[in-house]
Amino acid sequence: MTTTMQNQATEIIRQHAEQQFADELNALAEQDTRQKPPSWKLSPWSVVTYLLGGTLDNGFEITPKYIGNRRLMEIAVATLATDRALLLLGVPGTAKTWVSEHLAAAISGDSTLLVQGTAGTAEEAIRYGWNYAQLLAKGPSKEALVHSPVMRAMQLGQIARVEELTRIPADVQDTLITILSEKTLPVPELNSEIQATKGFNIIATANNRDKGVNELSSALKRRFNTVILPPPATADEEVTIVQQRVASLGKALELPADPPALEEIRRVVTVFRELREGKTSDGKTKIKSPSGTLSTAEAISVVNSGVALAAHFGDGQLKATDVASGLTGAIVKDPVQDSIVWKEYLETVVKERDGWKDIYRSCRDIL
């Protein structure tokens, strides 16, 4: 890599997984002697090692990207080695997008063949479009064809990602049926088709908790193997996830602050888990739950915002005053209902908990 390219890389806010973890992917590839499916950069075993972390024979450390059930990752990777597409399903914040990106990076070396699903996603985003200047000048031709990420993945034998599949209108979703079942994409305007190269597959993500969900047709569901990613099973697991992601984001954003104290992260995670589950961690007190999902991703955001406040408007050490506004913003989505739930939780749980007076006062001050 030239000096100019290195300087450009340091200016990027968020590198793709294959850029950020290039050293790990290269280390795995160098020692990977297991059988690889066609067009895969790594063997299925190495892909799972990349996701879950481990120590290679030469002592090289692979950092964990996903903290959770190993078997789920093995099923996901094994699915992609077959002719079945993979659907990662779960509530918001269960690392579906994160896992999808790292799977594509490890398998294809490219996680950028992405279709972001929204209510406005058109058929062209999945199939193909046209360069209208060329179309008007010469009529339908290969030169006028605008390839979608899915079409490029088919040609290159790589993984295409479709994020938030259930946000895409149902008629657009169903354009995937022919691609997934026949492994071909007809182009009737040119009286031709694009046939998928070995190694091609699709990873889709979806959740059914947000508004604007379009159920998948039974025909499309049958083309996917579904892996449900659950929320972190324990508080310790969730704390570890938040700690790792906040450290990674802080490094990328070059925040001039100390790493957040583990105890502050644990308090944020405890608040989220208790409100999410409707009871205190000791199970003795039932509490009301707010309307939001209070996902692990939102906990990461709360801590990361607090670190930024501590860095630029504090002494660099994360304190209760730094996380209070983020906590309140994450919890109070409905200004009436959620505000009542949050105030009640502060008075009945936070106020009475030993060592939590600072966070109680900080949160009350901004209500």
How would you describe what is shown here?
- This protein is of the alpha/beta class.
- It folds into 2 domains: 3-228, P-loop containing nucleotide triphosphate hydrolases (Rossmann fold, 3-Layer(aba) Sandwich); 235-365.
- Helix content is 47%, strand content 11%.
- It has helices at 3-11, 17-20, 22-31, 44-52, 70-80, 96-108, 132-138, 149-156, 170-173, 176-182, 218-221, 235-253, 262-277, 296-313, 320-331, 337-350, 357-365, and strands spanning 54-55, 61-62, 85-89, 114-116, 128-130, 145-147, 159-163, 184-187, 192-195, 201-206, 224-228.
- The strands form 4 sheets. Strands 4-7-10-3-11 form a 5-stranded parallel beta sheet. The protein has a two-stranded antiparallel ribbon with strand order 1-2. A two-stranded antiparallel ribbon has the order 5-6.
- α12 crosses α14 (296-313).
- The longest helix has 19 residues, at 235-253.
Q: What sequence of helices (H) and strands (E) makes up the elements? A: HHHHEEHEHEEHEHEHHEEEHEHHHHHH
Number of separate helices:
17
The portion of residues assigned to helices is 40-55%
Mean residue pLDDT: 91
Number of strands: 11
Q: What's the gyration radius in Å?
A: 23 Å
Shape summary: globular
CATH architectural group of the largest domain: 3-Layer(aba) Sandwich
Relative strand content? 5-15%
Structural class: alpha/beta
Q: What profile does the largest beta sheet have?
A: 5 strands, parallel
How do the strands and helices of this protein lay out in sequence?
Elements (H helix, E strand, L loop, with lengths): L2 H9 L5 H4 L1 H10 L12 H9 L1 E2 L5 E2 L7 H11 L4 E5 L6 H13 L5 E3 L11 E3 L1 H7 L6 E3 L1 H8 L2 E5 L6 H4 L2 H7 L1 E4 L4 E4 L5 E6 L11 H4 L2 E5 L6 H19 L8 H16 L18 H18 L6 H12 L5 H14 L6 H9 L2
Parallel strand pairs: 3-10, 3-11, 4-7, 7-10
Antiparallel strand pairs: 1-2, 5-6, 8-9
Helix pairs in contact: 4-5, 4-6, 12-13, 12-14, 13-14, 14-15, 15-17, 16-17
